[in-house]
Here is the input.
Amino acid sequence: MRKLALSDEILLSIDKPARYIGGEVNMVVKDPKKVDVRFAMCFPDVYEISMSHLGLQILYDMFNRREDVYCERVFSPWVDLDRVMREKKIPLFALESQDPIREFDFLGITLQYEMCYTNILQILDLSGIPLHACDRTEEDPIVIGGGPCAYNPEPLAEFFDLFYIGEGETQYDRLFDIYKENRKNGGSRMDFLEKAAELPGMYVPAFYDAEYNEDGTLRSFTPNNPHASAVITKELVMDMDSATYISKPVVPFIKVTQDRVVLEIMRGCIRGCRFCQAGNVYRPLREHSLEYLKDYAVQMLKSTGHEEISLSSLSSSDYTQLEGLVNFLIDEFKGKGVNISLPSLRIDAFTLDVMSKVQDVKKSSLTFAPEAGSQRLRDVINKGLTEESILKGAADAFHGGWNRVKLYFMLGLPTETVEDMEGIALLAEKVAETYYDELPKSERQGKVQVVASSSFFVPKPFTPFQWARMCTKEEFLERAYIVKNKFKEMRNYKSLKYNWHEADLTVLEGVLARGDRKVAAVVEEAYKNGALYDSWSEYFKNEIWMEAFRTCGLSVDFYTTRERGLDELFPWDFIDAGVSKAFLKREWEHAGQAEVTPNCRQRCSACGAMKFKGGVCFENKN
Amino acid sequence: MKIRIKFAKQGTMKFIGHLDVMRYFQKAMRRADVDIRYSEGFSPHQIMSFAAPLGVGLTSSGEYMDIEVHSTGSSAEMVKRLNEVMVEGFQVLDWRRLGDEAGNAMSLVAAADYTAAFRKGYEPEDLEGFLAGLEAFYERPSIPIVKKTKKGEKEMDLKPLVYACRVTGGDEPSIFLRLSTGSSSNVKPELFLETYCREAGFPFSPFTFEIQREEIYAPGFIPLNDLGEIIE
Here is the structure.
């Protein structure tokens, strides 16, 4: 029988013990003594969220294909177990071997959203690994970070030995080889980091010095070690079909957020929405071939037994073989009790036809993401979705039997006026009116339901809005009330619903997103005073964070409401994500004039990603 | 065609709750390519029902579920196919065909066997006294208890619902219990053991015993799989 790190008494006293026992279908079992490298792959959130993450499963599968590497998983213990582990001094362990994390060679932490940063400190703390990289010894694992938030790793710089900038498939093999080689030669931790720093995409924060101007902005950011390069270029997979995917995803016992096979159909996006970090940093768009996806779809459904398969990408409608893929999935699996779910689709005739085949029309709702309430503001953010196409899509859908619509917006976008805000209510009203105009009474399936939600806009690095001023909490809420009040004036008010996200959480996300090295102290201070699971609104304690800013002598406004000058040196400028700063500046200026930039298939806008020599830039589609 | 499956749930799988065991087997059916029947409608689900939910923390060597299939291989082949897709801790023990008129496992459940052993560190100082006292306790003509229900408290007699209680094993003794089980009168082994501990003045906590379910019976103490036929 497998040994467990936690006793029966503990496991039977906490919520969902299955989060901590491993042993799931397709979990990789190896003898830790027979491998050279032990890698603990961490998602710093609770099991159900962590196990829903595609990237983690891709790397888990890839690492474990190597005989000399054993990659295991570790996630944040939920607050109930966190308390027990601190009280009883139980070290954090990996799910597979149940061995303490501190015994591993690497602790790899994926950085998917800013609000998980205190959970990273929890992971280090419970593992018994010093929080600061500079305090770690030869006995401690190498702590490496990756994922979207690594595009501005600075608020976390002092907690990590190493960051991997870009897509994980390309350099880990070499990193492991270097690690083995270094150990064989009796090299130290420092020796390894110096060799790692020479690999593409690797950033060792300790090898750089940041100096600041009197106003707190960055003056210079320079390497202090000859092995470190001044610019780190992101890594990416150019030939998607050459990368391995997951043939045997781990299947959790408990219901997780993403309880299905997830098929990644492509990376990158041609759209160029100006608020979107993913759409910029994952450029250029690279597709998988239809044959590759068919093959993996079959393998993954067979090896997991999942009853649902979902497609994943930033904008699935832009996948050139979508029709072929969807028809294949329907023909192959629909009769076998497998559901097919299709997120991120533009609503058009094809989509509606497919959706009516794979979903229960009566139960499902239609989703549009106009992001802004007026055409002017949609042009500012370069969201190529017009009111006309939304209403046309809605009308078609209503005829097809749908009567529920979800609309997603952002509030606090640059240049936003009261008219733009009220436009949210007006657009929702027009959707509702379309229902009553299009369908005679006899054809209506009850009332129409339009739910509009708005999140608050956070400017992100490597987007044209990285210079933008962010709203204060009060401004956000004021805007939400303006929208809410406008909704009350609408004729079909009873068919409409409006809700909005939490504002203080958004403000903090804004600080961490564009933060510099100084912010690390705030994260640490907040953690020490009890901040944890900040992305869970029931555990988010804003006062702790505000107090931490005061203690550390930092201003929230410096990071959020301050408008950055065009010549300001940003903490993340040492990273080359493909899109050039010159391009982002041009886009920022176009935004100010509400000028639309065409997508990558219509015309090349010289964003800079062409230097990777592949993807849409080279498909002759410009 | 109705099929009854017997399986064991051992080791760390005792931490997997009943609903998750159901989900686990639904996925296992697909992995093993079992030609299982689905319900009609837009979101079809597998025709599958379990005999009696097992509490989290208990192991079992005799769990049952009924499914319906369009076609099947031999019992031996189906057991093998399912075991090829099991994880450590779950083992499929039996696959039998039921008659079309057969009642489902859940409605048939009448009794179940359990063994309870002391968890390490929870053995009473006076083990002999504990065991002797237990047998005497079971010999009583009635064992009144107060059961908490949704509406309040209800007095009831445990005695007629406990069909057997004896001590087995030598150096590491365990307690064998055969208890009424099912929807009409369900006695959990913990309830019987706790009642005894309280009356006899032995400490009791939810962790005192490691309990395993051994078998589930239809009326007449017929193991549920005996109601089906082996497919050659």
